[in-house]
Amino acid sequence: MGSTRPPKKSFSSSSSCSSSDSDFSSSSVRVSMDRPVVSIEIIRCMRCAREVEMTSTDSPSMYGMIPVGTGIFYCDKCARATGYR
After folding, report:
1. Does the residue 14 lie in any domain?
2. Which branch of life, at top level (predicted)?
3. Model confidence pLDDT, tens digit, residues 68-85
4. Which of 44, 50, 73, 82 has the lowest CB atom count within 10 Å?
């Protein structure tokens, strides 16, 4: 069972495209870099397990959640009941 290899092709090292063809417009690159990366986060009250979906750019207080620590939240009702608020 013999296999034949395709003939080798040689490529020239000189590029046929000019430098202006490969340049990107700085405005088009900047627009895509300025957009914030937004993700959906689910936060829960550590006392009653009330769950809220929010985006990473929103403030938890918009949804009635009070941050107690890093990634730890009370809902407004539980914060009042525990004396945190």
Report:
1. no
2. Eukaryota
3. 999 999 999 999 999 988
4. 82
